[in-house]
Amino acid sequence: xxxxxxxxxxxxxxxxxxxxxxxxxxxxxxxxxxxxxxxxxxxxxxxxxxxxxxxxxxxxxxxxxxxxxxxxxxxxxxxxxxxxxxxxxxxxxxxxxxxxxxxxxxxxxxxxxxxxxxxxxxxxxxxxxxxxxxxxxxxxxxxxxxxxxxxxxxxxxxxxxxxxxxxxxxxxxxxxxxxxxxxxxxxxxxxxxxxxxxxxxxxxxxxxxxxxxxxxxxxxxxxxxxxxxxxxxxxxxxxxxxxxxxxxxxxxxxxxxxxxxxxxxxxxxxxxxxxxxxxxxxxxxxxxxxxxxxxxxxxxxxxxxxxxxxxxxxxxxxxxxxxxxxxxxxxxxxxxxxxxx
Amino acid sequence: xxxxxxxxxxxxxxxxxxxxxxxxxxxxxxxxxxxxxxxxxxxxxxxxxxxxxxxxxxxxxxxxxxxxxxxxxxxxxxxxxxxxxxxxxxxxxxxxxxxxxxxxxxxxxxxxxxxxxxxxxxxxxxxxxxxxxxxxxxxxxxxxxxxxxxxxxxxxxxxxxxxxxxxxxxxxxxxxxxxxxxxxxxxxxxxxxxxxxxxxxxxxxxxxxxxxxxxxxxxxxxxxxxxxxxxxxxxxxxxxxxxxxxxxxxxxxxxxxxxxxxxxxxxxxxxxxxxxxxxxxxxxxxxxxxxxxxxxxxxxxxxxxxxxxxxxxxxxxxxxxxxxxxxxxxxxxxxxxxxxx
Amino acid sequence: xxxxxxxxxxxxxxxxxxxxxxxxxxxxxxxxxxxxxxxxxxxxxxxxxxxxxxxxxxxxxxxxxxxxxxxxxxxxxxxxxxxxxxxxxxxxxxxxxxxxxxxxxxxxxxxxxxxxxxxxxxxxxxxxxxxxxxxxxxxxxxxxxxxxxxxxxxxxxxxxxxxxxxxxxxxxxxxxxxxxxxxxxxxxxxxxxxxxxxxxxxxxxxxxxxxxxxxxxxxxxxxxxxxxxxxxxxxxxxxxxxxxxxxxxxxxxxxxxxxxxxxxxxxxxxxxxxxxxxxxxxxxxxxxxxxxxxxxxxxxxxxxxxxxxxxxxxxxxxxxxxxxxxxxxxxxxxxxxxxxx
Amino acid sequence: xxxxxxxxxxxxxxxxxxxxxxxxxxxxxxxxxxxxxxxxxxxxxxxxxxxxxxxxxxxxxxxxxxxxxxxxxxxxxxxxxxxxxxxxxxxxxxxxxxxxxxxxxxxxxxxxxxxxxxxxxxxxxxxxxxxxxxxxxxxxxxxxxxxxxxxxxxxxxxxxxxxxxxxxxxxxxxxxxxxxxxxxxxxxxxxxxxxxxxxxxxxxxxxxxxxxxxxxxxxxxxxxxxxxxxxxxxxxxxxxxxxxxxxxxxxxxxxxxxxxxxxxxxxxxxxxxxxxxxxxxxxxxxxxxxxxxxxxxxxxxxxxxxxxxxxxxxxxxxxxxxxxxxxxxxxxxxxxxxxxx
Lengths: 341, 341, 341, 341
Fold this sequence. Notes:
13 strands, homotetramer, globular
């Protein structure tokens, strides 16, 4: 069951579930689009869902679902989760930020609002399988991280964990495709605004900063300070994060690449090599491509990672978490080849 | 086995075979890229082919392959096919135009060169399953049609077959993404040339015209005359064909749509409805979306169809044909949902 | 003075007026953006208008303007023009369709509404200088045609005027950039919807059809019937019209090209040659590029034309008309070179 | 006279000269395109140069030119300049890097080749008018800097000059449109490679790094160390540089913005304000838009600047320099409004 099926993450869940051997979508809710055919909003799904219409959200709809994906705008999950967790057997994977931060005090600071269900924050596991596979396996409640966080953290966590880089002065300079901004038309997301343009946004105060810092803090076992600068690139999908950190002691490209390659050696979706990652290589797949360099001239450690913001950065990751939560093979229904070109 | 694995059709065959349950790629040839890692040329394939390198084409390589896909520039298949058809048990699916036309005289006219293996022309079945499924089933040699032909012919064949439209004065006005022009860099395909541009090309003399006319002639059982005007649109994938024909007698949108819907009622990959097709709806899938209108004011019948030129317009169709040729389920390894947005 | 300065046509008027030696913008109105700095909405204009804010429309604002451009959504000019034409000395150039059709009965048919100022329809001159230069010179009221009409009519008018092509069965198949749909965000104009997509829209019933037919009728001196099919291409600017017509008697590419070249021999903004027009060649300029072919196989006459929909298809044409109306040199402030690439 | 008129910088010089009141192009050379009509290679220029063909470079061609622009690939100017500087009255503006660095030893380090005319290095003035206006005025030989350098240096020079930021640990993370890679087709610049992709390139070793460091060193009056990371964005034009530096002592957004605004208060082409710069705002214009922020949380100073890489980042700047060199008004023939959208 998908709550919030009309946005891009919801539609991507529908796409991925259509070819998943063990998941069947019993219903997709969308309050603003209730009654609309899925195939009218997304003709790309007409082959797989020729006759499904969106339904309005009602708690009882959830009764027959073993698994619930929540793909809602920020803030909505906080209100819905308490209504649907009564049945102990049901699994929930939330794609929003509502249950990702472990400290309720961060919500007023970064989201300008008090959390509505702070007691549930510790019930949720942070849904990044590469770092928290054990906790996600069999978990009832998973808060899957989004695109920027996944991309930045997969690049940096091994290095802070290994003590190779300093935990302050880190800069994450990232560029995203426009689908990250959602389906609803806005001034900033019209074709004419974005096409042939490159610009920064959310400067200094992007809401995903505290998640990046939280996960890196856990890996480093000390406070980590990150300046995160997102940019908008004229493309539909894809995130590239270029991460800058100072080494703790002189290091080399080879040492940093080895650290990353070793960490992810048996990961099915993380590809570490010497190639410069391209967002387009990941299109439609659940992969994250990573490389790194150390500049002998200036000392900077540079790590670059790329993924598809709607797959490994959203719905693919949510399904990867659901697979783990339900005891299915982790890679079920998830591809490793990008649609190219 | 894929002969010509370094072009976009070859890479798409590699992508689709990676998730095909019954096809395994034993080798991919590429003379100009022999020795290059597949993953270096296409990092998008690094997850599925981490250690495969292109090999040069040599006839003996083919010995261990039950199925050979040929994805070569025009003219090359004519020279290779005679070398590799000695083994009776092997199936060949050619993605080029070399064996599509049934009349050898058309090659000098449209391709400015004499056919090198005219005696084989009648050995090949035209690989459009929606029209020639019976012949393709179990066939040894299949010539799969390309993007423009598939798109135009799926739109028009039912109408000429039903006698609903006149067989002269037909116009097919189509727009294609740039991948149709291949991987090799050319003046006309650089980003700066194509980006923000829309233009016609190949005016009056595009090589796929005689294929469109041939298939429609077979459906109509009489000569069919088509003016085909391709355009280049600033996108990587996708073909949209807007087809104009005069009705044989006054008709209606409803009658024309019914004719198309009835024809394709049980087709797994053709979707007929009232929605205006978008190329993007088909991205990465093997579907063709079709609609039609009749203009009560001017009488014109307008049929519009869309598909992904590298899937239903090339490699997906080739696999659909291979499935039929090998006796596998026709839809094996082929998706019906587009990657969107 | 620009009434409706916040849309793309309004902004383009501001851009062109900034480098026009004889026009100075005394004010730009925008009801929904009143109080907003021009440079906040269009940072591209911050160099030329660092301190101008939009004002709300009020009839008295017009008092000090010798020339008024109206760049409003359809229907608004009908209500405003009667308020501002009292001063005999003032010139008006309307960029909307409100005063383009000469037959008030066409408005209910194509725009689903009765015209509010039908008596003014005959006061307005149709602002296509290449066809109606004499009437526009010194005119008080000019209704400048839009992008599709200008592009189609410049391609076809000389041929129907010369009797080279039949006046029925004409098809205009055109593709437009997204700026033609305006600045206000809509589902159909978000980046993710348009990017990598090509689609038809407004099938059979696009509102500019009767204008095309009206102008061609005047040139042909008989009724002309056109089927007009617009498409949306993933680019910000540009229109390409591919026009199909049957010859009245057998003709040749050379004859058709000569007819066009002779007609426009002394036109400063129309370029006729054998090259296939690219929309990108016209970017930012007031030019229209035209070519033609005759297909010896099928007989069709094909004429292709390209222009920048916001310049020669809107604001550039309006300034060209204003130059003529005010007695200035016609090319004043208008460029003939495109920004490329 | 333009030597190297067939590349994008050469074509942009032709475009800008076409509307320059005091410059007339007597000839444009292009060895590989000699004999080709300018309008065939660039139909966008057909309105302004209907009958000009490229000529091969020969030293005597230069004889009648008061001003020579060199728009050649790196290395070529070193060979040509000695041939054409014999006439004392002639002015030269070189758009390549050949004469930008003041230390000949940097050429083998960054360009892997020894400089061919090291004695001329000190004859050339660095053509960045905002920093070196006095030296450029009346200069015979000007080496105009390119897009990355201009964009980065305009952002950072005032801050290092004022001692507001530290001179080590600076990171310039920039994204460029594809025209920066030139007109000649390459694997990395085909539409299908670039479209929908974002990637880094030239990591750690981009050739423009030493120019950035050289100019900042002059402003800081001490060594400056910069890590420069260029990215390729799917757009034709535009550069955005996001620059990170540590403050020398705690500072604020307001202080940093004031420093920039005061520095450029009377500059015709540099616009400093609180708005986040968009590359698209500068399209076709000679402007550079700059803003800055100081992050109170992490202390980082972030300066962001945008310009059109072919105008202020190449040919526009070259003309600005030529204006100064020839004693013309500096803004002659150069626009401040971007073509938008």
